[in-house]
Amino acid sequence: MEAKKKYSHFTITDFFELVRLNTKLNSLMPYLLGILFAYFYFHTFNWQNSLIYLVAQGAIALFVTGFNNVQDYRLAKSKDYQKEHNLIGKRNLSPTTAMAVMLTLLLIAAVLGIWLTVRTNLFILLIGAPGLFVAVFYTYGPVPFSRVPLGEILAGLFEGLGIMFLAVYINSPVSQLAYLNFDWPQFIVGGNLANLLLIFWVALPQAFFNAATMLADNTCDLKQDLANGRHTLPSYIGVQNSLNLFSFLTLAPFAIVAISVIFRLLPIWQLLIFVTLPKLYKNVQAFRQKQTKDMAFWVDEDNIKHRVPTTFDLAPQNLFWFQLMQVCGLILGIIFH
């Protein structure tokens, strides 16, 4: 029983590592892209809504990673994984304390989400509520989403499309996108389908890159996942098909953005993304050659330890550089519009 076991003190450093704070910049990029696109296309910006959503999205992003780590520890069948690979076991942290911190983050996100709904429209619940549901049940419940081949789809839908869509929605006139009006027992759903399809299209690269990052993660963890009873997409389609899909998800966004520029959905400055093409192509080839995730180190002649980069790191790098160029392209498009 946990009450009979002495655990290490849960520090702020443990919290940062548990939620992988260093990876959360990628969660911020779709948010920025949504705000910038709303200003570029609809010429609107609501700083209050944007600030509320920033805190809410930050809280849910931290919750998802931390909650998944706690659940992975609790559900793990491998004792070696619990003690040597999961932060909870390696640091001898209390799973109950860690879970309490994560649930506090979830509560913050839920309260802010309700506030944002009051400030905008009930339609936001059709996107936000499923997002919260997936965040919780990704590693919770009798059949967690993390143990079936849905991770890539869910990551693309909610971390890519969902974040960017909500960032556009809270900054744009409700009449320009979609609305849900409820007056018991009547309700009305309406909106502009053309604008909704437009946002879906321009946000598609974010969906692809987030799905690619999840796929890279699952491909690297394939053996470990199988040992712990997790059957992710690579276990069904095989490593080679996973690598082919990873290549497609990483390179297809270049074509999507190019088409968007041709049809003037995005400013011509978005073509800055092609500066990253050689690097991303090289990263894709490196990942196809070897899929590693566990950290390794080497010691130089001065006895200084250096971390050996893993090939998994290439996936979030691809996401970051592509999104950074998109952000720069939208900023330039706004300035020179």
From TrEMBL:
It is a multi-pass membrane protein. One of its GO terms (cellular component) is membrane. It is found in: Membrane. Pathway: Quinol/quinone metabolism; menaquinone biosynthesis. The chain crosses the membrane at residues 28-45, 51-71, 92-116, 122-141, 153-172, 184-204, 245-266, 319-336. GO terms for molecular function: prenyltransferase activity. One of its GO terms (biological process) is vitamin K biosynthetic process. InterPro entries: UbiA_prenyltransferase, UbiA_sf, UBIAD1. Keywords: Membrane, Menaquinone biosynthesis, Transferase, Transmembrane, Transmembrane helix. This is UbiA family prenyltransferase. It comes from Lactobacillus helsingborgensis.
